[in-house]
Specification:
With 403 residues, the protein is α+β, with helices and mostly antiparallel strands. Helix content is 32%, strand content 34%. It is built from seven helices and 22 strands. The strands form five sheets. Strands 2, 11, 12, 13, 14, 15, 19 and 20 form an eight-stranded antiparallel sheet that branches. A four-stranded antiparallel sheet has the order 3-10-8-5, with no helix packed on it. A four-stranded antiparallel sheet has the order 7-6-4-9, with no helix packed on it. A hairpin with a 2-residue loop joins β16 and β17. It starts with a helix and ends with a helix. 22% of the residues are buried.
């Protein structure tokens, strides 16, 4: 009987053990999952170490290298036009013809006056020759000959003046046809046939060259001192400064330019120096008036340590980044920043190329947190030496700075 009861007890104990075993096993798995769920999900990137080009960007505008506003030398109504707005014209090509009738009349009048003065001069010269013969025969006084000689000189001067008037009238007649002063492309602001053009006042059309063109921009006094070899570079004796432009649609113009002009003084009202860079424009892509971002690159920092801007946090006067520690926990690392280059900062001290910095997930991250790290590349995050091209919530850093 005792044996039977003991057997039942063992059976009950065994059943209880079997019943509690799954709960124990399930409890162990839940603990492991809970530990994993407590790790903060972040994205991290290996610190870059590479040669970093130092560049600066400025707002600029495309201007024509040579540009002329065409005006007529004489006044009159335009009766003919020999081009269309936007055409390419060659130097010496006729552009407009003005009403020439009054200038034709002026030529005829000047020629008539010249003929009259020449006839008067011819008669005076004949009289002088006769008087000189009479003086030789003592038939007239010397004073009479002297007076006639003075008359001849006066008539000769009048004839020369009338000759000049004929020449001037002919020039005015010729100027009723307006010629292109240079080769280039005409604008579409040309005046229409029937417009009255006032000499030296009415702008008939604008002509400008399209290849090459200038891109004009301004730099501050400090920036000028930074690029103080501009004048030396212009003469070919200094190190070259690479000049490129980015257009308003974000594309980079494929051809580089060179600085060719710098103003002689800083502008008094702005304290800036005006610079002109010359760019080849064989396809006519750059049009005068276009806005562009001018990028000057003068030197390169060898083996620079670079960290993305979005990884950098500031608290009071401290600048730091969150790095992935050897134990997989977050670690705040104080750094000293250098120049900004595109999406990055140059780090003077505080980081090495072996460090991994957190670039995403900083909003609630504090030091000493367990991290679940996803490694990313600069290309995946849109980082470059140009600019950060990915959308970025500025709250990411502002929230973390308060921790």
């Amino acid at each position: 009987m005792f044996f039977t009861k003991n057997k039942k007890l063992k059976a009950l104990l065994l059943a209880a053990a079997l019943a509690t075993s799954p709960v124990f096993i399930a409890g162990c798995g839940s603990s492991q999952q809970a530990a994993q769920s407590k790790a903060t999900q972040v994205k991290a990137m290996q610190v870059l170490q590479t040669d970093a080009p130092i560049s600066s960007e400025y707002a600029g505008q495309v201007v024509g290298k040579d540009e002329v506003k065409v005006q007529s030398k004489v006044s009159g109504k335009i009766v003919e036009k020999y081009f269309h707005g936007g055409d390419h014209v060659d130097a010496g090509q006729p552009l407009y013809r003005l009403d020439s009738r009054q200038y034709e009349s002026a030529v005829l009048q000047a020629q008539a006056n010249l003929a009259q003065s020449q006839a008067t001069l011819s008669n005076a010269e004949t009289d002088l020759y006769r008087d000189q013969s009479l003086l030789a025969a003592d038939a007239i006084s010397e004073q009479t000959v002297t007076t006639q000689q003075a008359n001849v000189n006066a008539y000769a001067a009048a004839a020369a003046a009338n000759q000049a008037l004929v020449q001037k009238a002919q020039q005015d007649l010729d100027d009723t046809v307006v010629y292109a002063p240079m080769s280039g492309q005409v604008s579409v602001d040309d005046v229409a046939v029937g417009t009255f053009a006032t000499a030296g006042n009415t702008n008939l059309v604008t002509i400008g060259t399209v290849d090459p063109v200038f891109v004009q921009f301004s730099i501050s006094e400090a920036e000028y001192l930074k690029f103080r070899n501009i004048q030396a570079m212009q003469s070919g004796s200094g190190d070259a400064i690479n000049v490129s432009v980015k257009l308003s649609d974000g594309t980079t113009y494929p051809l580089d330019g060179r600085i060719v002009q710098a103003d002689r003084a800083l502008a008094q009202n702005t304290g800036t120096l005006t610079i002109k860079a010359l760019f080849p424009n064989p396809n006519g892509l750059l049009l005068p008036g276009m806005f562009a971002r001018v990028k000057l690159t003068s030197e390169t920092i060898p083996n620079a340590i670079l960290v993305p801007q979005r990884a950098v946090q500031q608290l009071l006067d401290k600048t730091f980044v969150m790095v992935v520690g050897e134990d997989g926990k977050s670690e705040a690392r104080s750094i000293e920043l250098g120049q900004q280059i595109g999406s990055y900062y140059v780090v003077k001290s505080g980081l090495s190329a072996s460090d991994k910095v957190v670039v995403e997930g900083l909003s609630s991250l504090t030091e000493g947190k367990d991290l679940a790290v996803t490694m990313v590349t600069p290309e995946e995050m849109g980082f470059s030496f140009e600019e950060d091209t990915t959308p970025y919530d500025t709250m990411t850093n502002s929230d973390s700075s308060s921790n």
